[in-house]
Q: What sequence folds into this?
């Protein structure tokens, strides 16, 4: 397993990390992802450790805290071997202060996550979304306090716009506070918008990317194909409208290209889609999940090999879309905006 620096920090994370969103199945939404219990979670953790994975990702809102509890139990006796990433932001109750990035909510949720995980510190603590009602100074001052108290080691964000992240980084620099070293983002062969602004920002500011849903919300499993019904077991039956929007025909076009590369490599479609991400700039770790141990084993085999440049180019071309303004305009004068044309496939 390759280990990569997390953004502009000294922390090394495994190129593949494990996402525990499938743990618990505590409500209808997350049950569609999976309902892994403690015993199976322990086996999955052991498979990951054997493969060299050192980062395990979860969130307080996954199954209303149940995923954190299960992950904490699965990691008992192994805490010194792993890094834990968790998050706060989304509602955790019905009260007016049970959501967001206020000082009150962050402090309450950090303590609750520590209890559920059965640990005295969180290695990477994310703001799971941006809160425009709370000043970034309040959020970052609170996170900085948690870092200095030893309860949090590094801070990160998730699902921010470019200006959200840049404003936050500027505030940290201005006050000498801990800065976001990572951004957990959606990025896949059928969702490349991350490249338009957030990737150039990450390159410029030293913010590493942690990739969620690298298989396009379950669409790049190899089971979603033109002219075929959805497989019986798929999160898309219940969560398609909650995930990233994408046209069916675009998915089929990308899967066709994946099929071609699969024939060349002997790898599975998910392995190819994951490996493509592992070769992109700023990517510190790709978060993989699995319903079953067999799925996990296959996903773990996406590392330790590389697609050829020609294979990458083929996938780039199949998945390219014209960006929205102002990004299409920035491509016009590419010599002054090299990041804007970095990933435009050659016609």
A:
């Amino acid at each position: 397993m390759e280990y990569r620096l997390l953004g502009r920090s000294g922390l090394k994370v495994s190129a593949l990390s494990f996402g525990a969103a499938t743990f618990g199945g505590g409500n209808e939404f997350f049950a569609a992802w999976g309902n892994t219990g403690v015993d199976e979670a322990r086996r999955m953790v052991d498979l990951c450790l054997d493969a060299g994975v050192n980062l395990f990702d979860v969130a307080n809102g996954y199954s209303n805290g149940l995923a954190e509890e299960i992950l904490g139990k699965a990691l008992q006796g192994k805490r010194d071997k792993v890094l834990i990433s968790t998050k706060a932001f989304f509602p955790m109750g019905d009260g007016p202060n049970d959501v967001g990035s206020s000082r009150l909510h962050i402090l309450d949720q950090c303590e609750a996550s520590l209890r559920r995980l059965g640990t005295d510190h969180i290695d990477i603590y994310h703001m799971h979304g941006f809160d425009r009602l709370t000043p970034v100074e309040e959020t970052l001052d609170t996170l900085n306090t948690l870092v200095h108290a030893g309860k949090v080691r590094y801070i990160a964000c998730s699902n921010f716009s470019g200006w959200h992240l840049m404003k936050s980084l500027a505030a940290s620099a201005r006050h000498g506070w801990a800065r976001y070293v990572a951004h957990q983002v959606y990025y896949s062969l059928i969702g490349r918008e991350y490249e338009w602004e957030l990737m150039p920002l990450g390159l410029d500011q030293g913010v590493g990317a942690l990739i969620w849903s690298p298989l396009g919300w379950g669409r790049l499993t190899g089971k979603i194909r033109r002219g075929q019904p959805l497989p019986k077991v798929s999160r898309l039956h219940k969560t398609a409208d909650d995930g990233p929007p994408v046209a069916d025909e675009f998915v089929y076009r990308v899967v066709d290209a994946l099929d071609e590369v699969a024939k060349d490599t002997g790898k599975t479609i998910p392995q190819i889609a994951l490996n493509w991400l592992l070769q992109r700039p700023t990517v510190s770790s790709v978060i993989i999940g699995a319903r079953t141990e067999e799925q996990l084993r296959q996903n773990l085999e996406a590392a330790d090999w590389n697609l050829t440049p020609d294979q990458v180019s083929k996938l780039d071309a199949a998945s390219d879309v014209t960006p929205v303004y102002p990004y299409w305009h920035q491509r016009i004068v590419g010599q002054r905006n090299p990041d804007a044309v970095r990933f435009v496939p050659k016609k």
DSSP finds 14 helices and ten strands in the chain. The radius of gyration is 20 Å. The mean pLDDT is 92.
